[in-house]
Amino acid sequence: MRIGIIGTGVAGSLLAESLLPLPGFRVDAFERSALGEQAESGTGLNLGPNAAKALRLHLPARHAALRAASLAWRRWQVDLTDGTRLLDLDMLEVAEEPGIRIRWAELYRLLREPVAGCTRHGHALEAIEEDAAGRLVPVFRAGGALVRHGGYDLLVGGDGRYSRLRALTSGEPEGSLLGVGVWRLLVNDAADCPFNDYGQWFQGNARLLAFRVPGGAVYVAGTYPLTEQDARTRAYQAALFTPPSAAPCPAVAWMLAAIDRLFDDIHWARSATIPMLRNAAGGRALLLGDAAQAMVPTLGQGATQAVEDGVIAGAVLARGGDVGAARDERVAFVRAFSEEASDTLIPGVDPVAGTLAKNGPAFREKLRRLYTTVPGP
Ligand SMILES: Cc1cc2nc3c(=O)[nH]c(=O)nc-3n(C[C@H](O)[C@H](O)[C@H](O)COP(=O)(O)OP(=O)(O)OC[C@H]3O[C@@H](n4cnc5c(N)ncnc54)[C@H](O)[C@@H]3O)c2cc1C
Question: How high is the mean pLDDT of the chain?
Fold first, then answer.
């Protein structure tokens, strides 16, 4: 079976690695970015314990490589910006192993390394044609020219939120906005940072989220309700996260100083989802990761689900099964749970009561399902 994978981000790289050693498969991967260029580098992310479990069960070598290049995500604390504690969760109460804190550039490097031999870099999918046998023929822009590498029995879209494969086969998906702005920042040389593991700090419905990543750096992300006003100013962001009637706790004071100092390095985005879509072009195209299911980032499950998608799609394709049957119910649960957990970011919901409720058994049980219900090969 000839499989063409568009995009070697998270899902695409892992699918390629899973299929490469299997007899009966010929895998070609195509990546828009140049060799060695790690898109999205400069920031960090946390992968949930469920991504770690999926890798441990399906690709133990990749699990070991990521563990070696990351820090363990062991605790999840939620405070107000004045330091009042609302939640303190030991991740092993709801998971079988800790999550992963890693730099983006390092994650991409480690996932792309094992598939370098089957990847053509500098290839951006531009169009789709059909060969005489009815197979899809991807057309790439590479080095200024349009190039083709023949027809594929299956084309896989691992090309992210703005998937060209999805747009070409099914039209541009309509995004739904959550009404929330998100920014992220990597603070290098952060030896003076007063915290280590994963924390969140609320001020009304605005929230800071931060954790250390390897290399002496700290990842900081801000989330705030979108309004008519321009939020992309130092003064606006400082006001969002400065407690009105108390001193900020040391962690928030440190982040406020970092935001002020590194304001021009901030990456700005808006929290959005697209409708789920797994198969297209009459089953000749399969979508994975953000191309299939871009979701709100509240539980840090975007790349985490792309990990699950990549390795589980590999196991399912190896036995000739249906990837949608193996994945869609799980992904629907994760998307719904991520939106439910976003309640405290939306004006009108009390973030204190909303966070305290997450200490209760119902939320914990859902977290346990999220972090542990990962099928093996
Ligand atoms: C602010 C923010 C914070 C986030 N934090 C987290 C977090 O902490 N934890 C988490 O789990 N998730 C997080 N995410 C989500 C995460 O970034 C995505 O869900 C994840 O990267 C999706 O993986 P993917 O493999 O589907 O796509 P991607 O990782 O986006 O990879 C897509 C690949 O396709 C390539 N490509 C794109 N177009 C083409 C084309 N036309 N032709 C060829 N190649 C192409 C790209 O260059 C890229 O290599 C965050 C997202 C944002 C915006």
Answer: 94
* CB-CB contact of 148 with 236 (8 Å): no
Decide if pLDDT at 278 tops 90: yes
Q: Say whether 52 sits in a helix, a strand or coil.
A: helix
How many residues does this entry show for the chain?
377
Domain boundaries, the chain: 2-175+272-372
SS3 state of residue 126: strand
CB of 10 sitting under 6 A from ligand 1: yes
What values do phi and psi take at 114, rounded to 5? -70, -15
CA distance 110 to 217: 19
294's tokens: 């871009």
Give CATH superfamily name and number for 2-175+272-372.
FAD/NAD(P)-binding domain (3.50.50.60)
Residue 269 beta carbon below 6 angstroms from any ligand 1 atom: yes
Return the H-helix or E-strand segment holding 151.
none
- Residues 99, 100, 105: CA angle, nearest 5 degrees: 155
Q: Whose CA is nearest to atom 21 of ligand 1?
A: 303
Q: Is 157 in the pocket of ligand 1 (CB under 6 A)?
A: no
Give the torsion sign (CA, 173, 174, 176, 177): positive
Task: DSSP letter for 291, please.
Answer: H
Summarize pLDDT for 141-171 with one digit per residue, the tens. Answer: 999 999 999 999 999 999 999 999 999 999 9
Whether the pTM exceeds 0.70: the reply is yes
Strand partners, 2: 26
Q: Which amino acid is at 65?
A: A
Q: Which residues of 115-145 are buried (b: 16+ CB within 10 A; e: fewer)?
A: beebbebebebeebeeeeeebbbbebebeee
pLDDT tier, 42 (very low <50, low <70, confident <90, very high otherwise): low
Beta carbons of 47 and 99 less than 8 angstroms apart: yes
Any atom of ligand 1 within 6 Å of the Cβ of 303: yes
Spatial separation of the C-alpha atoms in residues 151 and 284, rounded to whole Å: 11
Pairing of strands 85-90, 217-225: unpaired
What are the backbone angles phi and psi of residue 106, rounded to the nearest 5°? Answer: -70, -40
CA 209, chain centre distance (Å):
15
Dist. CA 357–CA 363, nearest whole Å: 8
